[in-house]
Amino acid sequence: MDRRRTRAGSRRNPPDTPIRTVNRPEAFQHAFASFGVADTASLIAATADVALLVDEQGVIRDVSIGSADLGDLKHDDWIGRPWTETVTVESRPKVEQLLNDRGGIVAQRWRHVNHPSPKGADVPMMYSAIQAGPKGQVVAIGRDMRPLATIQQRLIAAQQSMERDYLRLRQLETRYRALFQAVTEAVLIVDGSSTKVVEANAAAARVLDESPRKLVGRVLADCFDAGSRATLQTLLDAARAGRHGDDARLVLAGPRREVAVAASMFRQDSTTLYLVRVAPPAVEADDPALPTRRSVLAAVDRAPDALVVTDPSGRVLYANESFATMAQMDSAEQVLGEPLDRWLGRAGVDLGVLVATLRQNDAVRLFPTVMRGRFGGETTVEISAASVPGEHACLGFTIRDIGRRLPAEGRSTVGLQRTVGQLTELVGRVPLKDIVGETTDLIEQLCIEAALQLTRDNRAAAAEMLGLSRQSLYVKLRRYGLGDYTPDGSGER
């Protein structure tokens, strides 16, 4: 019984006994006992990227390269040279240690050695040396460390990049906190899901009559009177929907003082936050026209025609909801800061014509073009525009949908319809080449007339709209007798 237990117990280690690994090359001696010289040489060449046969004087007698990626090394010149002369200066002491510590057939520990390369970058290798015979010869087995060196370099570059980004973020956070605390307007950062105050500046603490520490973590609704909380919730819902409205007037819970509250939403990483601004309400008694201005702004926001205000370069400063609908955008706030020609007519052409005309005449009326929506829809529109000079110069555009109007029977349309009707009479009497030539000339003439009408006889703008040079346009004007053409058809310049 005792023997069985001993044999059974020897088959596996006890659960708490650690397994130790030891270097036991004699364990493979029986497997390689039948190996010949050729088999041993093949084994060394297959397992090593570089194999060196070094004599007792440290001179390389043979070289085997097992990796095609080591073509940068001039290994053909190594034979007959001391091993120390084939490595860099700082690696020579390591090579000497490998040659001096000849511990029999047991491989030494690996050492990092660099070989110079004609391309400039050293080739890193890991070498271990084994005594090959009684004459003191040594077989050095080398492994290419360039893939590992590349990974290490990438890791170092990534760490340095992360440190730079971290430092930049720390600097941005410092500037943000300095600005956040320095502004005189009361500002609260509120969590979008729990509506708890995340941050509050010093001005908000003064307005709400609380310390900043007590405000952080407090539900925003608790800062206001019970009668104002429904209005506050409506304001937050509008901010979440992306709608921009007037400031809401709420009553504070502590001081029982009326304040004007505005809210907007933004995202930080995966968190939704509210930016809530609190300020004393404007005194309308000091400005009797203030209620009227608010009414005008409300009417502009609800106007059926699209109204847009841009800076002199054409970037949107204001847009009402009708423009957002035409542009197929979710809200008017999404178009702010965007160039108007993103949605207007031909990009870089129609807006350029409008701006050039506004610089000369300060107003443009009934300019026909199209509006392009975000999802590819097009709407035929007419644009009237005005230029507002001064310190805060801007451009105002009124855009009206005329897609449902009946087309006007203009001179060019009638002429084109008449020509199309006569084509059937010409077929069989006139060669097709002549019919196509005359039709092409007529279409070209109609396009030039349309461009002159759109640009109000601005030849440079018409040439740009048609994709012609000015000289080519003048040649065609003389060809079709349009040298004195004016949009009203009077023939006078």
What does this structure look like?
This protein is α+β, with helices and mostly antiparallel strands and 493 residues long. Helix content is 36%, strand content 21%. It has 14 helices and 15 strands. Strands 2-1-5-4-3 form a five-stranded antiparallel beta sheet, with helices on both faces. Helix 11 (411-426) runs antiparallel to helix 12 (432-454). The model is unreliable at 1-14, 408-415 and 486-493 (pLDDT under 50).
Strands of the largest sheet, in order across it? 2-1-5-4-3
Proportion of beta-strand residues: 15-25%
Enumerate the spans where pLDDT stays under 50 for 5 or more consecutive residues.
1-14, 408-415, 486-493
Tell me roughly what share of residues is in helical segments.
25-40%
Strand-pairing-aware structural class: alpha+beta
Mean pLDDT: 77
Number of helices: 14
Largest sheet: 5 strands, antiparallel
Radius of gyration: 42 Å
Secondary-structure element series: HHEEHEEEHEEHHHEEEHEEHHEEEHHHH
Q: N- to C-terminal separation?
A: 126 Å
What best-fitting shape do the alpha-carbon axes yield?
A: flat
- What is the total tally of β strands? 15
